[in-house]
Amino acid sequence: MRVVMKFGGTSVGSAAAIRQVAKIAVESHHEHEVVLVVSAMNAPDLRTTDTLIAAAKAAAEGDGDATAEVAPRLLAMHMEAAAALATPSDCATLEVDLRSMLDYLSNLSRSIAILGELTPRALDLFSGLGERMNARLIAAALRGAGLDALALDATELIVTDDRFGMATPLMNETREQARACLQPLLIGRQVPVVTGFIGATKAGVPTTLGRGGSDYSCSILGAVLDADEVWFWKEVDGVLSANPKLVPEARTMERLSYSEMGEMAYYGANVLHPKTVQPLVQRRIPIRIRNTFNPAHPGTIISAEPGSGTAKAVTAIKDVSLITVGGPGMLGLTGVAARIFGAVARAGSNNLLISQASSEQSVCFAVARTEAAAAVAELRAELANDFSAHDVEHIGVIECTIIAVVGSGMRGTPGIAGRIFGSLGDAGVNIIAVAQGSTENNISLVVAPSEGDEAVRAIHRSFSL
Ligand code: ASP
Ligand code: MG
Predict the structure, then answer these.
(1) What value, to the nearest 5°, has the Cα angle with vertex 213 and ends 212 and 214?
(2) What is the pLDDT of residue 267?
(3) How many Cβ atoms sit within 10 Å of the Cβ of residue 119?
(4) What CATH architecture applies to the domain 312-463?
(5) Which intervals hold domain ACT (predicted)?
(6) pLDDT score of 263
(7) Which of 86, 168, 250, 448 gives 244 a disulfide partner, CB atoms 3.0 to 4.6 angstroms apart?
(8) Can you name the CATH fold of 12-228?
(9) So where are the chain's domains?
(10) Which H helix or E strand runs over 343?
(11) Which amino acid residue places its CA nearest to atom 5 of ligand 1?
(12) d(CA 227, CA 222)
């Protein structure tokens, strides 16, 4: 198989973690063609990307020496790991490379301080440096473990537009460039170690794909290389059926479909962002979430297959406001829903859930609590005349929690909603509103914030997820 695999910042955050990564790479390479994509080192006391961005900002405020304190710390952190894992000669080369990168950064911070301005383009040069340092370190560690590994900057592979800080890949150009560079290496049984997070424009100007962008880098490369599978190595065994802090008996799910993953990400579960994996979903490439620190666990596989089971996971979104617009004159009042949601959109709020009973006397929808006041103000302006005519009589706002039950097997299976409502009734949880889209992938319930945790536990229990 051809496997493109990504290691996040914590998975490469220390010498011990990188030793584990090297072990995984060696074992995977026995059986597969392997490409690694790596984030910047993320140690609890030195978060590389955050630190680089802070230095760039200090430079823009006029501190020409903004990197003076952090550059030696970054150098020390990388070299300490290298000393434990790479050969002495690789360590020597690495140190020269890292020093020259950090020197470049200090020159850049002087220029930024003189200009007194930090453009998104200059910030990308700063923030992407962590990945460039780390790819070189990881490649050296892999060589120390006996692999023929090679560090590559994704500026040579991933071609993007010029939206600095949040660039979008140009897939055709990327395909051509990445394949031309990586295929011969893979055929030669080499192991490319590619920087996550960064790319470059057609003209070769470095860009970044947005914070947390290494997952996206991995998907892009998996897609253009026609990988058989793409693995995301994280610090958990896989995707869980509920938040383990709330539900101690939460389980790692063996299998999820792409759409179930999308639903879960939307409802705040810590899985991959749907946009990030879109290149893989489009090509039907299976995704695996695995645990760097427990590689014997098979993890969760996410693919086009629906898998088995009805309800698979239950999640909660907190800090939500439920806004209700109601009045006797709303029955048959054409266009009122369009005007309500138009107003909400003008306020810049995002609807998390919408529900209207067929009596048409009220419409309710949920937005993030921080967005509620603006949405209500915009609604009052929009509906001023309807209020005078008493068609609309109230706009209510309550704090709430949304509980979402996800699972594509719920489609066409009778009795699921009954079981959910029954379990909440038994637990004494009152349901304020309900929404289920006709895709039946997801049933969402609105409950009081004080009952949210119990609702999650009760539903999890009743499906023994
Ligand atoms: N290092 C980058 C960040 O912290 C990218 C990533 O980790 O995915 O945002
Ligand atoms: Mg990250």
Answers:
(1) 95
(2) 60
(3) 13
(4) 2-Layer Sandwich (3.30)
(5) 405-465
(6) 79
(7) 250
(8) Carbamate kinase (3.40.1160)
(9) 12-228, 312-463
(10) helix 336-346
(11) 212
(12) 5
Structure tokens at 207: 């860009």
Residue 40: CB within 6 Å of ligand 1? Answer: yes
pLDDT band, very low/low/confident/very high, at 394 (cuts 50, 70, 90): very high
> And the tokens for 427?
């637990």
CA of 40 to the centre of ligand 2 (A): 8
What is the per-residue DSSP string for 366-392? EEEHHHHHHHHHHHHHHTHHHHHTTS-
Q: Could you say which ligand is closest to the alpha carbon of residue 48?
A: 1
* pLDDT tier at 266, thresholds 50, 70, 90: low
Burial string for 248-274 (b: 16+ CB within 10 Å, else e) reads eebbbbebbbbbbbbbbbbbebebbbb
Q: Taking 60 as the threshold, does the pLDDT of residue 268 lie above it?
A: no
Residue bearing the bigger pLDDT, 1 or 442? 1
Cα 274 from Cα 267, distance rounded (Å): 12
Question: What digits encode the pLDDT tens for the residues 402-451?
Answer: 999 988 877 778 888 888 999 999 999 999 999 877 666 788 999 999 99
pLDDT tens-digit series, residues 24-46: 999 999 999 999 999 999 999 99
Q: Supply 360's token pair.
A: 């048409």
The model's pLDDT over 151-178, given as tens digits with 9 standing for 90+, comes to 999 999 999 999 999 999 999 999 999 9
Pocket of ligand 1 contains residue 154 by CB under 6 Å: no
Beta strands in 153-190 (DSSP E): 159-160
Look at residue 226 in the predicted model and tell me its pLDDT: 98
Would the CB of 39 count as within 6 Å of ligand 1?
Answer: yes
- Partnered with residue 315 across adjacent β-strands are 404
Instruction: Please report, in angstroms and rounded to a whole number, the separation of the first and last CA atoms in the chain.
Output: 32
Q: What is the pLDDT of residue 245?
A: 87
Q: For residue 20, how many C-alpha atoms fall within 13 Å in the half-sphere facing its CB? A: 20
C-beta 197 within 6 A of ligand 1: yes
Q: Residues with beta carbon < 5 A to ion ligand 2?
A: 8-9, 39, 212
Helix/strand/coil for 251: coil
Paired sense of beta strands 2-7 and 33-38, if any: parallel
Q: What's the rounded mean pLDDT across residues 182-188? A: 98
Q: 212 CA distance to ligand 1 centroid (A)?
A: 4
- Mutation to probe ligand 1, out of 50, 123, 197 (largest number of atoms < 8 A from CB): 197
Residues contacting residue 295 through CB under 8 Å, at least 6 positions apart: 20, 23, 24, 27
Q: Residues 249, 252, 257, 260: is their CA dihedral positive or negative?
A: positive
Helices (H) and strands (E) in the chain, counts: 15, 19
At which residue do the structure tokens 């496997």 appear? 3
Beta strands 42-43 and 46-47: pairing type? Answer: antiparallel
Smallest CA separation from ligand 1 atom 8, residue? 212
The response to whether residue 213 sits with its C-beta less than 6 Å from ligand 1 reads yes
